[in-house]
């Protein structure tokens, strides 16, 4: 975990990578794909995977797609 203030950064505490955004349409598409893959709690899994994808910064939609593809391939959600 980074310190709340980084004196070496010109932006201080705001120098962290901002969270990505995952649009609701991407979460809905993830839900459909997870349900088709046989995930019983597809809505909850899609929401959790979207949250994890957004936390990584960058392109949240692409990160969600990668996580959903891995989950649909079979590994448990905790390993995705």
Write up what this structure looks like:
The protein is an all-alpha fold. The chain has one domain (24-79). The chain is 50% helix and 0% strand. The protein has helices spanning 24-36, 42-55, 60-72. α1 (24-36) packs across α2, α1 runs parallel beside α3 and α2 packs across α3. The longest helix is centred in the middle third of the chain and has 14 residues, at 42-55. The two termini are 21 Å apart. Mean pLDDT is 82; it is low at 1-6 and 11-15.
> Which runs of at least 5 residues are low in confidence (pLDDT < 50)?
1-6, 11-15
Helical run tally: 3
Total number of domains:
1
Query: Based on the structure, what is the oligomeric state of the protein chains?
Result: single chain
On the 0 to 100 scale, the average pLDDT is: 82
Task: Describe this protein with a few key phrases.
mainly alpha; 80 residues; globular; disordered N terminus
List the helices and strands and how they pair.
Blueprint: H1 24-36, H2 42-55, H3 60-72
Helix pairs in contact: 1-2, 1-3, 2-3
Quick summary of this structure?
With 80 residues, the chain is mainly α.
């Amino acid at each position: 975990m980074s310190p709340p203030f980084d004196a070496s950064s010109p932006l201080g505490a705001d120098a962290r990578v901002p969270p990505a955004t995952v649009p609701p349409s991407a979460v809905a598409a993830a839900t459909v794909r997870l349900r088709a893959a046989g995930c019983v709690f597809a809505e909850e899994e899609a929401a959790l995977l979207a949250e994890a994808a957004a936390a990584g910064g960058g392109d949240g939609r692409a990160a969600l797609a990668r996580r959903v593809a891995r989950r649909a391939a079979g590994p448990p959600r905790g390993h995705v």
